[in-house]
Amino acid sequence: MERFEGIPKEGFAFLLDLRFHNERPWFQENKQTYLDCVKKPSFALAAALGETARLVDSDMETRPDRVVSRIYRDARRVRGGAFYRDVVWLSFKRSMGEEKNPFSFYVYFNPDEYGWGCGFWDPRPAVMEDLRRKIDARPDAFRDIVTAPWMKNYELTGEDYKRPKRESGDAVLDRWYNKKNLSVDWHSPVNADAFSPDLAQRVSQAMLDMAPLYHFVLGMDER
User: Fold this and answer.
1) What is the domain-level CATH number for residue 17?
2) Which of 108, 120, 168, 187 is deepest in the core (most CB within 10 A)?
3) Nearest partner of 210 among 47, 101, 53, 45, judged by Cα
4) What angle do the packed helices 125-137 and 139-146 form, to 10 degrees?
5) CB atoms within 10 A of CB 171
6) Angle formed at CA 151 by CA 136 and CA 159, multiple of 5 degrees
7) Is 87:108 a contact under the CB 8 Å cutoff?
8) Ranges assigned E (strand) in 100-182
9) 46, 105 contact by CB (below 8 A)
């Protein structure tokens, strides 16, 4: 696997062009740019982050071909001839048991922005109920995690229940408790930092910062 040298500007430019030329003939004519400037650096970034991911969880899936999203849309969901995605994401999650708890670390980039974080991808209600049980059992431990200094750089996102599950007056815990789904997200407009090889180190440090939250959600810190 080649060393990660950053996501080249040409990769972002390719995704922007793809947004307006989302058709097979154009893609085939420009496929080499995709391979060189999007796929190759994405796989290199996945490889660069693999050691940290395994340090956080030895059961984490780190094979680049399983981590990096495909550029091709699911043929069953193609609308208006849009055959390709103009966004690339990397998703680090456990090799087994995704259906049980789909909590993962992610990195993404598109023509407009790039970012990273951790969270659930379309969790079943039972998954969120399990998180609420964990918060109920250890509220102080969870509060320490979500008020740690690293969280100041992140945004808690996700859909709230129309009828809150709990209104205890504890603003810190209630905002997490009342989510149907959630993620902790950092993002930025595309800038010079997105093109830098240092991106891998920044994301690696972010994964280590977020590791206590990951461990709490999966119950790893209780073992």
Assistant:
1) 3.30.930.20
2) 120
3) 53
4) 100
5) 7
6) 60
7) yes
8) 103-109, 113-120, 155-157
9) no
CA 200 distance to own-chain centroid: 14
Residue 117 maps to a domain: yes
Which residue type sits at 150? W
* β-sheet bridge partners, residue 157: 183
Q: Are 207 and 195 in contact (CB under 8 A)?
A: no
pLDDT in tens, 137-158: 999 999 999 999 999 999 999 9
Distance between CA atoms of 183 and 122, rounded to whole angstroms?
A: 11
For the four alpha carbons of 202, 205, 210 and 211, in that order, the dihedral sign comes to positive
Consecutive H or E run containing 186: strand 183-189
pLDDT confidence tier of residue 166, bands split at 50, 70 and 90: confident
- Residue whose C-alpha is closest to residue 49's, from 194, 154, 202: 202
Reduce the DSSP state of residue 119 to 3 states and report it: strand
Residue 222 lies inside a defined structural domain of this protein: no
Q: How many residues does the structure list for the chain? A: 223
Q: Which DSSP letter does residue 60 get?
A: B
Question: What pLDDT, on a 0 to 100 scale, did the predictor assign at position 81?
Answer: 60
> Is residue 69 a part of any domain in this protein?
yes
Rg of the Cα atoms in the chain:
19
Q: Which residues pair with 156 in a beta bridge?
A: 184
pLDDT of the residue at 58: 94
Which residue, 163, 153, 150, 158, is CA-closest to 176?
158
The tens digit of pLDDT for each residue in 30-83 reads 999 999 999 999 999 999 999 999 999 999 999 999 999 999 976 555 555 668
Pull the structure tokens for residue 217.
């959600």
